[in-house]
Amino acid sequence: MVVAASSFCLSLLLVLPAAAQQPRLDLRAGLLASSTLVEDLLATPALKARFPGLGSAPRARAALAPELEAGATLPLGPRVALDGLLGWQPATLQATDDAGTRDVQRMTVLHALLGLEFAARGPLVVGGGVGMIRYRSAARGLFADGADLAPLVRLAAGGRWPWSGHALTVRALADVHRFGSPLLRAAGGSGGGVFRYGLQLGVVPGGAR
Amino acid sequence: MSARRLAGALLVLLAACDSAALPPRPSADVYEFRLATTPPRVLHWPSGNTVRIYVAGGTVDGQAGALASALAQGPAAWNRSALFGEYRLAATAELAAADVLLRWSGEASPVDLSQCPPGGTRAVTTFCLNSGRDRLQAFPLAAGGMSRVKMVVTILPSQLTIPGRVPVLVTHELGHVLGIARHSDEPRDLMYDGELSVTLPSRRDQATVQVMYQTAPEIVP
Ligand SMILES: [Zn+2]
């Protein structure tokens, strides 16, 4: 599906006539939460029988953290724009098990995204995009052998309002992406999906339309 | 692509989105780690703890730097297994901050070992249980007052004559420091109680420490 969506966007870029308008800077800042990144299914019934105090599966996720995106938006018509964005989120990997929740290590989540946004009714905008995402962190624990570059799909909806010649935006967004790493594979584990979601405020300088 | 289609695509993706997972550890990969009391009891540091190790390098030529260089490898080898931040082993240059003392036998110790003298042969990890048998006692400072040292790792200086032996012994003892209070019966494990043929924690050593730290401790340093 990700490949199909990417092909759709690329072909759109190729066949569309030269845009009537110039690309404009697009700046966004948000607060994003995340579903579980990795779960450890370590306890078998046999192990629980041997060690009665053995707890449930520990899991790790990115804690709620701010996120910045910068890129360009190119109007393709009166109601549709093409967005290209680079995103940066400094986050903390948090683990939860029977002993509680604790911070494990700092990480940086980087992504690149190519998307389309449509003006629906009034200030309402909806959009989606595809891209790639990578988690970077010190080489220890779950990140001992790094992490994969993984595909990302985004869906967003919100509003866009003119203000003093600029455009101000508010978006609720949901990202779905894969997470995998050499350590997971070496341990016989599997990559999996992550759901990242949150709110963004943005501005397109000079972008009122 | 309409908003409805995009939402549908996202829902399909979500439905196929189990999170990444590490597999269960086979029971055969986990050896007994509990202290050999009756009944056996789980001993480990509180989850999320950083265990700080102070090196008393000794005064004899050739010994002074050997423990410190061994400690440059051992903590990292074990820290790799702490996937969820369950523990962290780290060296400290300050005795006042140390939870663990690493020393040569026969050398003066900065903590008073008279209550719980180290025995053993090549290397040994020593600690004192309190009267309730649920905590470890801190060792008194040799100069008076209390330290926060709860475990002492003692290495026999004669091991220094065997190339590569001291780092392996120190890494093995750090397994005991983490709470592995028994030995593996598999020679390919670092926690084997015999001639060690490996230098790093094996898959079974890793599985054992991971299961141990997900098991509620009954004795906490
Ligand atoms: Zn031992």
Description:
The complex is a heterodimer of chains A (209) and B (221). Chain A has 209 residues and is mostly beta strands. Chain A has a single domain, classed as Porin. Chain A contains 3 helices and 10 strands. Chain A has helices spanning 2-15, 45-50, 182-186; strands at 24-34, 36-40, 59-62, 65-75, 80-97, 100-119, 124-137, 149-163, 166-179, 192-204. Chain A has an 8-stranded antiparallel β-barrel with strand order 1-4-5-6-7-8-9-10. In chain A, a hairpin with a 2-residue loop joins strand 8 and strand 9 (166-179). Chain A is elongated and about 70 Å long. Chain B has 221 residues and is α/β, with parallel strands linked by helices. Chain B has helices at 3-15, 66-71, 74-79, 165-178, 203-213; strands at residues 20-22, 49-56, 87-92, 100-104, 123-126, 151-155. A 5-stranded mixed beta sheet of chain B has the order 3-2-4-6-5. Chains A and B meet through strand 2, helix 2, strand 5, strand 6 and strand 8 of A and helix 1, strand 1 and helix 5 of B. Strand 2 (36-40) of chain A pairs parallel with strand 1 (20-22) of chain B. The structure holds zinc ion (ZN). The site of zinc ion has 4 residues of chain B, from helix 4.
Name a few traits of the molecule.
heterodimer, A: 209 residues, mainly beta, Porin, eight-stranded antiparallel beta barrel, 3 helices, 60% strand, disordered N terminus, B: 221 residues, alpha/beta, Collagenase (Catalytic Domain), five-stranded mixed sheet, 5 helices, 14% strand, globular, binds zinc ion
Secondary-structure arrangement, i.e. CATH architecture of chain A: Beta Barrel
What is the string of SSEs of chain B from the N terminus onward?
HEEHHEEEEHH
Q: What characteristic shape of chain B results from the CA principal axes?
A: globular
Second-tier CATH architecture of chain B: 3-Layer(aba) Sandwich
Oligomeric state of the chains present here: heterodimer
